Predict the structure.
Amino acid sequence: MSEKRANAALDKERPAGSQSLFRGLQLIEILSNYPNGCPLAHLSELAQLNKSTVHRLLQGLQSCGYVTAAPAAGSYRLTTKFISVGQKALSSLNIIHVAAPHLETLNLETGETVNFSTREDDHSILIYKLEPTTGMLRTRAYIGQQQPLYCSAMGKIYLAFGQEDYVQKYWEIHQPQIQSLTRNTITRLGDMYQELASIRDKNMAMDREENELGVSCIAVPVFDIHQRVPYAISISLSTSRLKQIGERNLLKPLQKTAQAISQELGFNAQL
């Protein structure tokens, strides 16, 4: 089935009158990958829609203040209105208010980048980040960023503590996207099973330059009252600095922070 036919079939499954809404949201998602703007012709190609339809949808989004013309002629980009909407959505998550004081303490204690994420579908979503206070590395990660589960420390936490059959399903669905980003990236299912068993045993995960050379990450799970892992915390830093500080010296305050947040979420380690 061609992509256009697939889109047509998908449109039929959607509620009546919602086609324009879904297409508008599709354009927003595409534009989010082009901070400097995306030409109308290319946007039309990516969305598999004709130019007149894309132009009409863009005009509607522009009139609402969500899209604006980019410097390059015939290109469009998202506006900062999405920052306001995103911040309001994040502020509505009580977990941020619960976790922030603990994460700030961790950030001051270690001096390194602190990341806090949740799992959404088959991705890890960064919902809170604190820049280093003494460390020199500024990571490219940003609030709202999606990360694959197989090549990030926090992502592997979700794989390790998810449902028993989840890893197999994840691997089958995302096989085309599971690629070596560096020489250390785990791309074989058997190797990942071994990695996840070690993570469950140690209650921590490592990104050993699996996503980006020169950058390492240590992550730990945050448990809730139901013994599930809805969140993860990590510290990111250069590999050279990690060797200088020592993994254990970062893991102890990291686990202490995760335990404090887990307790606030009702987790009882004795159960």
Notes: Residues 47 and 192 are 34 Å apart (CA to CA). The beta strands are 38-39, 67-69, 75-78, 113-120, 123-130, 146-148, 205-208, 215-222, 231-238.
